[in-house]
Write a structure and sequence with these properties.
Helix content is about 35%, strand content about 20%. It is an alpha/beta fold and about 200 residues long.
């Protein structure tokens, strides 16, 4: 993927961090981003209860440019605990996202900050190999809260990206994770509040 150095996140693209969603505002922001050269949009099924995904889908359908989409799944699970993560549940979330985005395949699906125990369950990661074989996703990534989770995630061969918080206040990933990611041929491709690492051989 040849993605722009700056991407756009859609947590509050149409409202105030998930409330009072405004379709006109969302469309204006997304179109402005694409007009400015951004071709990578990060969203999630829980952003405005799916409305952000729908807004992204509408814009992509209306544009001629190639726009890459990353979305996330898992945070709908309530309570948000390890036991709630089941392959059938996650499959349904992915299929629902495809419908909202009006896409045949998702460029990057990310597990959305699951509990640490999930990273020790191979059957969860194997599901995404099946989804890829079915053509429903192109790549799997993870959005993590802890360095331990990031280190465990890159042990799975099908994890193409890791999204981890790294900024002037949160420096811990630089102590170990960055060096381990480089050893496994991941590369850093954007910075700011969220640091994204993608594996060279897959994405």
């Amino acid at each position: 993927m040849n993605v722009s150095a700056i991407s756009i996140g859609t947590w509050q693209v149409g409202g105030k961090w998930g409330s009072n969603f405004d379709d006109y505002n969302a469309a204006a922001i997304l179109n402005k981003a694409i007009d400015s050269g951004i071709n990578f949009i990060d969203t999630a099924d829980v952003y405005s209860d799916g409305l952000s995904e729908k807004a992204v889908g509408k814009i992509i359908k209306s544009r001629s440019e190639k726009i890459y989409v990353a979305t996330k799944c898992g945070r709908q699970i309530q309570p948000h605990v390890n036991q709630g993560y089941q392959p059938a549940v996650l499959r349904k979330y992915v299929e629902d996202s495809l419908q909202r985005l009006q896409l045949e395949t998702i460029d990057l699906i990310q597990l959305h900050c699951p509990p640490t125990e999930v990273y020790y369950r191979p059957e969860i990661f194997e599901l995404f190999d099946q989804l890829k074989a079915e053509g429903k996703i192109q790549h799997l990534g993870v959005s993590v809260e802890k360095v331990e989770e990031a280190l465990k995630a890159i042990e799975y061969n099908n994890v193409s990206t890791v999204q981890i918080i790294f900024n002037m206040f949160r420096q811990r990933p630089a102590e170990l994770f960055f060096s381990e990611a480089k050893k496994k041929r991941y590369r850093h491709y954007c910075s700011g509040t969220i640091s994204q690492w993608a594996i060279d051989r897959n994405i």
